[in-house]
Amino acid sequence: MMLKKMTSLEINDLPIRYKIIALLLIISILPSIGFSSMISMAVDKIIEKQATKHTLQLIGQANQSLESYVENMQDTSYLVSFNADIIRFLQDGKAANENDQYEMQQFLQGFTTVNPEIAGILVINDKGKYLSNEMYTRNIKSLIKENWYREAIENNGIFKIIGHPADRSVRTHVNYKNSEIVSGARAILDPESQTVVGVILIDLKSRVISKVIEDVKLGKTGYLMVIDDEGEVIYSPQGSLVDKIQLSWLKKGSSGTFSKKINGKNMQFIYRKSPFSNWTTIGVFPTNESVMEVHKINFYVISFLFIVFAFGIGASYYISFSMSKPINQLNAFMNQVESGDLSIRYKGDRADEIGKLGRSFNTMLEQINKLISLIEIQGRQKQEAELRALQSHIKPHFLYNTLDTINWMARRKGALDVAEVVDSLSQLFRIGLSKGNDLIPLANEIEHIESYLKIQKARYKEKLNYSISIDPKLANISVIKIVLQPIVENAIYHGIKERRGPGHISISGEEHEGNLALSVMDDGVGIEGERLAALRESLAFNFDSLEETKKMTTIGYGVMNVQARIKLTHGDPYGLYIDSVKGKGTTVKILLPLN
Fold first, then answer.
1. Cα separation of 234 and 255, whole Å?
2. Which helix (H) or strand (E) holds 577?
3. CA end-to-end span of the chain, whole Å?
4. Predicted local confidence at residue 394, as pLDDT
5. Three-state DSSP class for 580?
6. How confident is the model at residue 210 (pLDDT cuts 50, 70, 90)?
7. What's the CATH code, domain 210-291?
8. Is 398 or 523 the better-scoring residue by pLDDT?
9. Cβ distance 118 to 70 under 8 Å?
10. In the chain, where does the domain assigned CATH 3.30.565.10 lie?
11. What is the torsion angle, in degrees rounded to the nearest 10, for the CA atoms of residue 90, residue 94, residue 97 and residue 99?
12. Which one of 176-180, 200-204, 304-308, 479-483 scores highest in mean pLDDT?
């Protein structure tokens, strides 16, 4: 209790100048430290989250490309097994004549000509007789005793990726090394007895995998590698930091992250497994690369705090001096009055509380003989009022401008990723203050979907074609943002991608009976009747909130989200309407109000 009382007395004994300095420093520096700490932690988490998200996107794109090659191998095996001469060969073990054998070899040769990524195709029946365009056996050992033949039979007619060949008697005329090809096989079943009549073996050139993976870079030294379901490395770049991935490192599930110390280095791993090929694509990069970015951000934060400290100390000294100087002057006048000099007067034109106090001091001196006791009380009251007024004028003006300061500093230092994150956060604050706006001009929405289609066009090339026809008079009509992209995405992945040959997506917009009618039409595979009925039923759902769209499993969440936003914003009869004919295509109409 005594210590507390002494501390209170020591603080009260300090000059007002030091109290003002301490108050300004506490108000300015402590919030800056707290705010900077929160910014540092938030940016650290955001960088880690964005790095993981970006890597998973790259892995997903790589997996899609790899799956297309595996799908092509599978489709080739089906096409080969449907050939009448091949079926006869599998059942009889030989061709009808040499001409038939030559035609079958030419038939197989056609697949490797059209698909140069295929190194060779071999067809073998259950008695060990085989036929191939590019492959032959190295010895007299029967091929039906080899592992790849047994694995194909055990998979019961389903195409299986074997991986890099090992200890097999088959080789190609080009003499590929085992590491240069990846094998896949499928057993051919008799349609009546469901017994195995033969196996189709297909070799895929490993270089097509490297073309997909090798150009993907994660940071400065990170890379992607591919392993199969048994942990065998399908592809790893030269000079890789990790030679082998143990399956025990991978967690249960199709994707995840983990860290390991390899050869004295802390490594970060991000992986995603392809359900079609059972291959796992893994992103590998040193942990210190991401830590370096965090260190840069911390450096900027510390630099910002240093500037705040310097500015706060300088400002506090200046403000305290400007306030304490006239007070000290008044104090000197009072000391003279105490000594008996009642002729002293305060001279100054200040309009603040200090100026008022000085003029009141003059009044006090004029009336000291009549109101000396009252003036003493009034003097104390004015001093207290002065302190309260000074405190009320100290406002943390810098808090809202902090984000703009960090953004400017980040751009000046070249840390554009930090600048973008801070700018986004600043924009979030501004939208929050203005209550946001989900409506954009139709021209902006069309520009958004056109950019999306350009990206998809670069991926699918001649597979995807599109056209956009919008009445120019409708360009400034306000619409809910991002209503076209989920619809077009469904048209690509469930319509155009599934059809054979190139497809076309047509986007149009016009005024219809006082409303805005947007249409997305594709010539894809279309939708079956039962499925179409289920989709229409889902779209007719009575939405009360956007959260209810997550409970709808009949249709994609993106499309349901669009329908829910339109219904919640405009009500009936606005929303999505689907028409489709199996084998001919699908049309999705979006009805929106003009006003």
1. 18
2. strand 575-581
3. 72
4. 32
5. strand
6. confident
7. 3.30.450.20
8. 523
9. no
10. 439-593
11. 60
12. 200-204
* Per-residue tokens: 254: 């199709």
Every domain of the chain with CATH number 3.30.450.20 lies at 68-200, 210-291
Q: Which helix (H) or strand (E) element contains residue 227?
A: strand 223-227
Phi-psi region of 185 (alpha: psi -120 to 50; beta: other; left: phi over 0): beta
DSSP class of residue 342 equals: T
Q: What is the pLDDT of residues 512-534, one digit of tens each?
A: 888 999 999 999 999 898 888 88
**Share above pLDDT 90 across residues of the chain, in percent, rounded to a whole number:** 8
Q: Whole-angstrom Cα distance, residue 416 to residue 134? A: 53
Tell me which residue has tokens 């010539």. 523
- 31 cis-preceded (ω within 30 degrees of 0): no
Task: Give the whole-angstrom CA distance, residue 285 versus residue 260.
Answer: 11
Highest averaged pLDDT of the listed ranges 1-10, 219-228, 285-294:
219-228
Q: Tell me how crowded residue 134 is: count the other CB atoms within 10 A of its CB.
A: 19
- CATH number given to 68-200: 3.30.450.20
Q: Are 185 and 165 in contact (CB under 8 A)?
A: no
Residue 507 is predicted with a pLDDT of: 95
Nearest to 88 by CA among 233, 198, 169: 198
Q: Which class would CATH give 439-593?
A: alpha beta
Residues 6+ apart with CB under 8 A from 296: 413, 415, 418
Tokens at residue 250, please?
């991978």
- What number is the average pLDDT over the span 481-486? 84
The angle at the Cα of 108, spanning 103 to 110, to the nearest 5 degrees, equals: 95
Rounded distance, CA 66 to CA 277, Å? Answer: 8
Q: Which residues pair with 185 in a beta bridge?
A: 160, 201
Q: CB-hemisphere CA count at 13 Å for 529? A: 0
pTM value surpassing 0.70: no
Give residue 130's Cα distance to chain centre: 50
Chain centre to alpha carbon of residue 266 = 24
Q: Which residue has the tokens 């993106």?
A: 558
3-state SS track over 98-135: HHHHHHHHHHHHHHHHHCCCEEEEEEEECCCCEEECCE
What average pLDDT score do residues 434-448 get? Answer: 71
